[in-house]
Specification:
231 residues, mainly beta, Jelly Rolls, Herpes Virus-1, 6-stranded antiparallel beta sheet, 5-stranded antiparallel beta sheet, 15 strands, globular, disordered C terminus
Length: 231
C-alpha cells in the first residue's frame, strides 16, 4: 500500500491481498477503483464485497482469500468479478442497495450489473477488496475513501476517520468503537449522541492514552482520572 493508502499492490503470491475501506460506506455509495496491473500468469481475478464486521475490531491474521475463506467466517459477502472486467486500465464501481444486493458498473460499458445479494444492511458496512490472481494492483479513486489493512504488525497510530487530519485518540463508551480524534468525538456527541459506527448511545468519550495507562476501559460506573462523562 502506498503512502496515500489509495494504491494497493500484491508482490509475491496470487493471494493475501485483502484490504478494507477506511470507513463505513453508505447504501448506494459507489466504491470506485481502477485496475493498474493485470498479471496473466495467474488465473482468477479481483474480488469485491462488503463486511458488516468492523475491520478495526478484527483480530489475528486475515485468511488468504476473501472467497471462500473470509465469507465462510460470516459477516462478509463477496464475489469474483467477471474476467471481462479485469483488463488493465478498467475502472470499476460497486455498491450495495437497501435490499442488500450488490451491483457494479465499469468503464467497458457494464451498467448496474447484478453481482450478488445477501449483504446485511442493518449494521455499518465496510467495502472489501481482494487483490487476487490476475489483478496485481488497484487504485481506489476519489478523495473520500482510502484502503486499510489488518495485520498483527500494523501501527496502532491511525488518523481520525471523520476529519483524516488528526490522530484517532478516543473511544466511544460503552460500545468501545475507536477511530476518532477528540474534536470530532465531541462534535459527534453534541450532534447525535450516538456512535456513528454502531448507532449505540454514547455515555462517555474516553481518551485512549489514559486507557493504556489504566490497562483498559472502565467496567462499571467508576472512571480513571481524566476520563470524562459527557452526559
Amino acid at each position: 500500500m502506498d503512502e496515500s493508502c489509495c494504491t494497493v499492490s500484491r508482490i509475491d503470491t496470487f493471494h493475501d491481498g485483502i484490504v478494507f475501506s477506511n470507513r463505513p460506506v453508505e447504501l448506494e455509495e459507489k466504491v470506485t477503483l481502477k485496475i493498474l496491473q493485470d498479471d496473466q500468469k495467474w488465473h482468477g481475478g479481483l474480488r469485491v464485497g462488503f463486511t458488516w464486521e468492523d475491520p478495526h475490531l478484527q483480530s489475528g491474521d486475515l485468511p488468504p482469500f476473501a472467497c471462500p475463506n473470509l465469507v465462510l467466517q460470516g459477516k462478509t459477502c463477496a464475489s469474483v468479478l467477471p474476467d471481462d472486467y479485469l483488463a488493465e486500465g478498467t475502472t470499476i464501481s460497486f455498491w450495495v442497495d437497501s435490499q442488500g444486493c450488490v451491483f457494479c458498473s465499469t468503464s467497458l460499458g457494464a451498467e448496474g450489473s447484478f453481482l450478488f445479494g445477501g449483504v446485511s444492511v442493518k449494521s455499518p458496512l465496510w467495502a472489501v477488496v481482494d487483490v487476487y490472481g490476475r489483478t496485481r494492483a488497484v487504485q481506489l479513486l476519489g478523495k473520500q475513501l482510502q484502503a486499510r489493512t489488518i495485520c498483527s504488525e500494523e501501527s496502532p497510530v491511525e488518523d481520525c476517520m471523520v476529519c483524516f487530519a488528526s490522530e484517532a485518540s478516543t473511544m466511544m463508551f460503552p460500545c468501545h468503537h475507536t477511530g476518532f480524534c477528540s474534536v470530532c468525538s465531541v462534535k459527534i456527541f453534541k450532534a447525535s449522541g450516538r456512535c456513528p459506527l454502531c448507532r449505540e448511545k454514547v455515555e462517555k468519550i474516553l481518551r485512549i492514552s489514559l486507557l493504556v495507562e489504566n490497562e483498559g476501559p472502565p467496567s462499571g460506573s467508576g472512571k480513571p482520572e481524566g476520563i470524562h462523562s459527557l452526559r
